[in-house]
Design goal:
The protein is α/β, with parallel strands linked by helices. The chain folds into two domains: 120 residues, Rossmann fold; 82 residues, no CATH class. The longest helix is centred in the last third of the chain and has 16 residues.
Length: 216
């Protein structure tokens, strides 16, 4: 269900033609919604399932289908995805349809910045990254999706090459800290917390909004 995030309505579905329709990754949708509401951006959010990340070859077709519907309604559309493992397929969709997407190879770039991530991997290539969304949904998004709830013997196959877990925390609450500790314990690796905030995502969404406004 699309959600309006204008100042006049923060929760009611809307098809207001003036709002920028943002197709968002489900893993970023709540943060994009909060930012748009706080900044009073005229944005209507359309979230795609976060589990598409487990089959990244499906991301570009899903974005293309939804963008085609929205463009067919005369809407302005932007894409709140990075490349996210599509290996350029999402960029092809954006070029053909005249859309802007978030910068970077993946949401970790958007949230933490490419330079910071490069430094983390230079320090320890065997780094497994978590975001707030992955911390909160670790059992469903990782344990269940990888079949570890049914076949825990596969844990070493999936995570044997990792040496640490790094949580790039947008809003590090006490509850999320506990969940991050639990996720690291499942993998059996030490946890590091790097508070990154939402500044990187805010800057990128602001750019999408600015480009969308220029095309109005």
């Amino acid at each position: 269900m699309p959600t309006s995030t204008t100042g006049s309505s923060t929760s009611c579905p809307s098809r207001a033609s003036g709002a920028l329709a943002v197709i968002a990754c489900g893993a970023l949708a709540n943060d994009v919604r909060r930012l748009a509401s706080a900044r009073a951006w005229d944005v209507e959010l359309h979230a795609l399932p976060s589990l598409l990340h487990n089959r990244p070859e499906r991301i570009a077709p899903a974005v293309e289908r939804l963008a085609g519907e929205l463009l067919g309604e005369g809407r302005r559309v932007a894409v709140a995805y990075a490349d996210c493992g599509t290996y350029g397929a999402l960029d092809d969709v954006c070029r053909r349809l005249g859309l802007e997407r978030l910068g970077g190879l993946h949401c970790y770039d958007v949230l933490a910045g490419a330079d910071r991530l490069r430094a983390l991997f230079d320090d320890e290539p065997g780094t497994y990254l978590l975001t707030d969304f992955l911390v909160a949904s670790f059992h469903r998004s990782v344990v269940v999706e990888l079949g570890l709830d049914r076949h825990p013997e596969l844990l070493a196959d999936y995570f044997g090459s990792y040496r640490r877990v790094v949580w790039i925390a947008q809003r590090p609450t006490t509850r999320l800290h506990r969940q991050a500790d639990s996720a690291a314990a499942v993998i059996g690796l030490p946890l590091e917390v790097h508070a990154v905030g939402l500044g990187g995502l805010e800057d990128e969404v602001e750019r999408l909004v600015a480009v969308g406004s220029a095309r109005a």
